[in-house]
Amino acid sequence: MVLSRGIDWRWFGLKALAHILALLPAAWLIYRALQDQLGADPVAALTHGTGDWTLRLLLLGLAMTPLRLIFKQSWPIRFRRLIGLYAFFYASLHFAVYLFLDLGSYWSQIGADILKRPFITVGFTAWLLLIPLAVTSNRWMMRRLGRNWQKLHMLVYAIGILGVLHFWWLVKSDVREPLLYAGILALLFAIRLKPRLHSWLQSRRTADDGQNTA
Amino acid sequence: MTDDSRIPSSEITPESVYRRRRELIGAGLASPLLALAGCTEAKTPVAPNPALTSPNGFSTGEVKTRFEDVTGYNNFYEFGTGKADPAKFAHTLETKPWIVTVGGEAELTGSFHLENFLKGHAIQDRIYRLRCVEGWSMVIPWQGIPLADILKRFKPTSKAKYVAFTTKADYKQMPGMAYNSINWPYREGLRMDEAMNPLTLLATGLYGKPMPKQNGAPLRLVVPWKYGFKSIKSIVRIDFVEKMPQTSWNMLQPEEYGFYSNVNPAVDHPRWSQASERRIAGTESKLFAQRIATLPFNGYAAQVAGMYKGMDLRKWF
């Protein structure tokens, strides 16, 4: 990737647009919350809304590498950090809504909730794991960590799985929506694994060939 | 726990503030703008307060849930699993004519037009708390007939130990049934003494209006001391049975939903706490409303706890 020292206005515009798009759901939720348009249980609506957008952005961020593989273009990777940081932003909003609006003065419940409720344990773990990724998402940390940076950021796969599991475990009987997220996640993993699988099969084949001719 | 601790101090408006607010309103400062912002409405505490409940449990003085919220936020999976789905899709339910079939261990059985089924009974008013297993609650003014009054007419035999209820199941009228979120038809049941308890209501209306379709028109059960899913909607069958009948949520997740499903803050749902609830009530925004403590038997212990004497409520959740 060639980085020019001057400002690339086209990219600047696209990034600005991406920021605006990423902030729109939050703005819309907050607006409706203040206008009392979130229905009978606005706290539940805010919790679900911020949770949905966390998962959507997480999956979108995870889609950047597969997009690069499919289109053989590098531009998707340039949005990856921005999308990932907004996933963390929505996850933090989600956690804040749960803490301050849902639990409110019932903070004594939080310890029991996190330890005893598997779906909350899983969601909380996913949020915790997002923190080191957000902290090390800048260029300076990237350079400092070197090869370890890549290893650390592999955590995002685990976070994706935990996020979907968090959703799956909280629904009462209708698993269609979590199933959709799980399906997309599986598809994204499959696309990533495909070239590796190919090269692995290739290497096995050549190894077999070598044995046969020997 | 003392009674006082049930009302968070933040819910109590200091008298001085309260008096001053009245003065301001009295001085004619209450403009239409203030009314728009909801400032003229007193911030009444919404904590469950047994002192506000009449001795027989038939009525509570707690802040009621708005009609729009009672009719816009429903679990009625036959019309979809979203809370707003029933209000959107229940209009296709045909409630006239409505036939109720009574069967099983009773001297009198058969199918009856709703009008005949209800004939001779005076409609009574109840204001009950409703606690959903999901952790939210409402206060709803119902109209209906005590279930006991109706059941007695059919002269259940000594073999009748339980009463089983069935919801209408019609794929044409209920679009949510296309997805098998529940093993249709929806089924519920009560032990005979629970069915005969004066609190148990066969409701035909709410807020003085005929029962809205999304709330289970034209005939639904209201069992205020049990989690909401026990209060089965749009009933077409009532059977007197000897053995504990199968109930829908128990069939789906037996370790999460028991037959009794009495509201119990001491027994958590395996996946979430039942110690507290979000009360959906009043006209103010619920955004910053405080959670309130959930009470044993949803605050109706005085009227119903006796039925479960000697039972381990952890085992019989």
Walkthrough of the structure:
The complex is a heterodimer of chains A (214) and B (317). Chain A has 214 residues and is mainly α. Helix content of chain A is 81%, strand content 0%. The relative contact order of chain A is 0.09. In chain A, helix 9 (155-170) runs antiparallel to helix 10 (176-213). In chain B, 18% of the residues lie in helices and 20% in strands. With 317 residues, chain B is an alpha+beta fold. The two termini of chain B are 23 Å apart. The interface between A and B is medium-sized, with 30 and 34 residues.
Q: List the secondary-structure elements of chain A in sequence, H or E.
A: HHHHHHHHHH
Class from helix and strand fractions of chain A: mainly alpha
Q: Tell me the quaternary state.
A: heterodimer
CATH class label of the largest domain in chain B: Alpha Beta
Number of strands of chain B: 12
Based on the coordinates given, report the CATH architecture of the largest domain in chain B: Alpha-Beta Complex
Q: Report the uncertain regions of chain A.
A: none
Provide tags for this entry:
heterodimer; A: 214 residues; mainly alpha; 10 helices; 81% helix; B: 317 residues; alpha+beta; Sulfite Oxidase, Chain A, domain 2; 2 domains; 7-stranded mixed β-sheet; 5-stranded mixed β-sheet; 12 strands; disordered N terminus
Summarize the structure.
The complex is a heterodimer of chains A (214) and B (317). Chain A has 214 residues and is an all-alpha fold.
